[in-house]
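The material for today's practical consists of a large collection of protein records. Read left to right, the backbone structure tokens trace the chain's path through space. An example says more than a description, so a record of this kind follows:
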Amino acid sequence: MTPTTVQLVAAALFGVALVHTFSTSVFAHLAHRYPRHEGVFHLLSEVEVVFGFWALVLVLFLFAAQGREGATAYVDGRNFTEPLFVFAIMVVAGSKPILRLAAVLVNVLARMMPLPNSIAVYFLALSVLPLIGSAVTEPAAMTLAALMLRDRVFKVELPEYVKYMTIGVLFVNVSIGGTLTSFAAPPVLMVAAKWGWDTPFMLTHFGWKSALAVLFNAAVVSVLFARHLVRATPDTPTVADANSPPAGAMLVSGAFLLGIVMFAHHPAIFLGLLLFFIGYARAYPRHHDPLILREALLVAFFLAGLVVLGGQQQWWLQELLTRMSAQQVYYAATALTAVTDNAALTYLGSLVEGLSDEFKYSLVAGAVTGGGLTVIANAPNPAGYSILRGNFRDGSINAGWLFLSALGPTLVAIAAFQLL
């Protein structure tokens, strides 16, 4: 199929956006060098802004090439449910009552483990919380795990390599940890209904392998960084203080979280629930810290930009995938996921008719395997990036170091999906 001019321009802009994602530190440097325009350069140094910015360029090109009707028809034809859902789930999952509920669960489990509390909490944040993502969705799991790591582990000085290895394991484990059910991981959700993959199928074909890889990855870094963790985090469980939200607040917030998860495909309902939750949080400010609205909006903007730009990439992605064998497509999907959202990748695969069961397995397994290699690889990654980046040097996470840090856990996931 010969690509149109719009598709070629969109592919070029997508490539520019990828390069921009790996070059945000350059714009941060320019902001310091040219203070007169530091506002613009600081804006362009925000990873969450990158795809939204270049999506705007694409839309402006569509207005010039196709007129108002063509441009608006294209944007109206995009599905923005996922960015909206991630926004809603981040705000609720990052609220004080939900965080306290997650902390209670982690502390109970930590006390049952024959390990110093600091190491046990670290291990559980990188293992149990990503696996819980199969029940409360991956974006919620990422938000909870990232906030717990920020407040319990990253709050003191740690070597940069410890932080990078931690976030590498977190991103990979969240990506594969949502495959125990058919609704929690975006790349699985895109194909589950069409291919008839229910939760029992996911558990028997993906879930147990993912769980073993998640536990192994978390255990390795917990052992490697034990001496740093003992120094970084007090060896006592966190206890409730006078400002801790009561059980009633945790139950109400948990009900809102559950409602948003249950209606994840219905924006009018889950956004309505979010508005009610914001009202509830304002009515009881003593039980809530300021909601993470800014962080959630930035992540939603990032994902919305990816939806707009990604909608014009089907012509080359689908052509590439259909030329491969099932074994080839696994490794190709793992690699391609690093440069495009894994949900978009599996969605394109779902459009192809007559795929073998082995090909379907390889496509989805590869998509979730590579979901931790870059910020754009998996929808929840921008949430973890936004929450944790302030704890890294210069307030940013280097894309190259993230990729290298995620390689080890990704190889473990490859072994789990290909050898077990």
User: Anything to note?
Assistant: Residues 47-76 form the longest helix (30 residues).
